[in-house]
From TrEMBL:
GO terms for cellular component: cytoplasm. Residues 436-534 form the HTH araC/xylS-type domain. This is Stage 0 sporulation protein A homolog. May play the central regulatory role in sporulation. It may be an element of the effector pathway responsible for the activation of sporulation genes in response to nutritional stress. Spo0A may act in concert with spo0H (a sigma factor) to control the expression of some genes that are critical to the sporulation process. Transmembrane segments: none annotated. It is found in: Cytoplasm. Residues 3-121 form the Response regulatory domain. GO terms for molecular function: DNA-binding transcription factor activity; sequence-specific DNA binding. Keywords: Cytoplasm, DNA-binding, Phosphoprotein, Transcription, Transcription regulation, Two-component regulatory system. InterPro entries: CheY-like_superfamily, Homeodomain-like_sf, HptR, HTH_AraC, Sig_transdc_resp-reg_receiver. The keyword Cytoplasm applies. One of its GO terms (biological process) is phosphorelay signal transduction system. It comes from Eisenbergiella porci.
Length: 540
């Protein structure tokens, strides 16, 4: 409902205007009345309205003076309608110079009032759409700049734009926030959710984070990960947030997590990267948050941490009761791709764990040490290997088989697959022939639900290594390559067909209209509707 303020020094006119039409039926609510301009100013200083209807001639302050004052002092940007007699026509002409939308001659007729109100509604709808489009573009442009910092590929312009939108005082951490998608029912069976359900929950999580952060909402970013199976929210935490809330860092994040969990009504987890001193170093904190995330996936049942700190994982090697000898033997076998030894070495590790009666927390500590060393092993094979791709491999291959987290079977399978991955990093360059086939397949099936895992199975290549080849060949991740190709196909459909946005969205492989529009803006710099309009205007 649009809020209306009526201003006239004659009470019977105010009463007549209020009774002349059914305001609510027309989409308006009478917010208040005033007898002159001064009363109107006092009202506007306390209450925002969308439309002001004021008489020209009033004591104390005329309608023209009221209009001039609220425009000059930016008291209100509401639509302004003047009530005037025939003899006041020149005054009405002057009012229009001060952004008065229209005038109505007295006595006011119902049809004329309705006509002006319809004009206000139509313009208000267009203005709202324009503001929403500008806000959407601004948010998408900011996200592009922030992601450049997160990925460590940025310049001074990226840095300055991010600093113009968010406060970056004190120490900074990147924090990955996700819904814990691993809860089980009473029988112990994993509860699987559809991709659409996960996306809807991700949107809810994002909105609840924005609600919690309020004016610091720019610190929150939607869908950061390049892994198509992740539904994450990124948070750039700065020390001032906890300080202004009167809490320490741990207390603030506990409160944050508790607040959004209560609204989500399901478990939410945070993975906290290490502290950096400047926003320009954000990529280092992002990298370590991903490591904390990958290690959390290996924690045994009942040991899920709601907030996982990278620093806690990093110091695992220094803790007591580390089965270092057994772990190092297993790591060596994985590095050398000794598949026949891996099962027995995993058995030896678990036997040592059982002999020492290690509890769940200490078992997780040993697994953390193992993962640290395996990440380093991949980097030793190829100094150019992207660490995020390694972590994506760990995430994907940790759970796809459905084996219980923390079990011997789970660890054996993972170690064998990781041994294959390291072997392929050492192997010959197969980029040319395989990537040509993969590229052609994507062009023919881009609208389908394509994943690196599916392509890896089709072309007999480890999915993580295929991800590496994508970055080396095209300079972008598989997810970005697929998204860019889909958007180019959408742009072609916008230019050569009259299909609606939702129809184009479905044809190129998207299932969420808001997500499609955001991705289109990020690549093309404008909404699909504006892209089509600009292209057609340029051809006329």
């Amino acid at each position: 409902m649009l809020q209306v303020l009526l201003v006239d020094d004659e009470p019977f006119i105010l009463q007549g205007l209020a009774m002349l039409i059914d305001w609510e039926k027309e989409g308006f609510t009478l917010a208040g009345t005033a007898a002159n301009g001064l009363e109107a100013i006092a009202f506007l200083e306390k209450t925002q309205v969308d439309l002001i209807i004021a008489d020209i001639k009033m004591p104390a302050m005329t309608g023209i003076e009221l209009l001039e004052k609220i425009r000059a002092e930016h008291i209100s940007d509401a639509y302004f309608i003047i009530l005037s007699g025939y003899s006041d026509f020149e005054y009405a002409r002057k009012a229009i110079q001060y952004s008065c939308m229209d005038y109505i001659l007295k006595p006011v007729r119902q049809a004329e009032l309705l006509s002006v109100l319809n004009k206000v509604k139509a313009d208000s709808t267009k203005s709202l759409q324009r503001r929403e489009e500008v806000a959407l573009q601004e948010k998408a442009y900011f996200a592009r700049n922030l992601i450049a910092l997160i990925c460590g590929k940025f310049d001074q312009l990226n840095l300055e734009h991010v600093k113009s939108k968010m406060r970056t005082e004190g120490g900074i951490r990147y924090i990955d926030i996700e819904i814990d998608d691993r809860p089980e029912d009473e029988s112990g069976k994993l509860l699987l959710k559809s991709e659409e359900e996960k996306r809807q929950q991700q949107r809810l999580l994002y909105q609840y984070c924005l609600d919690f952060l309020k004016q610091d909402g720019w610190h929150c970013i939607f869908d950061v990960s390049s892994n198509e199976k992740d539904y994450d929210i990124g948070l750039v935490y700065c020390d001032y947030m906890a300080q202004e809330a009167g809490m320490d860092e741990q207390g603030y994040l506990d409160y944050f997590l508790q607040s959004i969990q209560q609204r989500m009504k399901q478990p939410v987890v945070m993975f906290v990267g290490n502290r950096v001193d400047d926003i320009s170093l954000l990529s280092e904190s992002y990298r370590t948050a991903n490591i904390a995330r990958s290690f959390q996936n290996f924690h045994v049942e009942g040991m899920t941490q709601r907030i996982s700190w990278y620093e806690e994982q990093e110091c695992a090697e220094e803790r007591t009761l580390l089965c270092k000898s057994s772990l190092d033997e297993l790591i060596k076998a994985v590095e050398q791709n000794e598949k026949e030894r891996i099962p027995e070495l995993v058995d030896s590790l678990y036997e040592e764990i059982n002999r020492n009666s290690l509890d769940a927390k200490l078992v997780s500590m040993n697994i953390d040490y193992l993962l640290f060393q395996l990440v380093h092993a991949a980097q030793a094979q190829d100094i150019n290997v992207n660490q995020e791709e390694i972590l994506e491999f760990i995430n994907r291959n940790a759970f796809d088989s459905g084996t219980m987290r923390g079990s011997r079977m789970h660890l054996k399978r993972f170690a064998e697959e990781y041994a294959d991955y390291l072997s392929q990093l050492r192997g010959k360059n197969i980029r040319g022939s395989v990537m040509s086939d993969v590229e052609q397949y994507i062009r023919e099936h881009y609208a389908q639900n394509l994943t690196l895992k599916d392509l890896g199975l089709k072309y007999y290549i480890n999915s993580a290594y295929l991800g590496q080849l994508f970055r080396k060949t095209y300079g972008v991740s598989f997810k970005d390559y697929l998204n860019n190709y889909r958007i180019e196909m959408a742009a072609a459909l916008l230019l050569h067909t009259d299909l609606k946005n939702y129809e184009i969205m479905e044809k190129v492989g998207y299932h969420d209209l808001d997500y499609f529009i955001n991705k289109f803006i990020a690549l093309k710099g404008c909404t699909p509707a504006r892209f089509r309009k600009k292209s057609r205007e340029s051809n006329t």
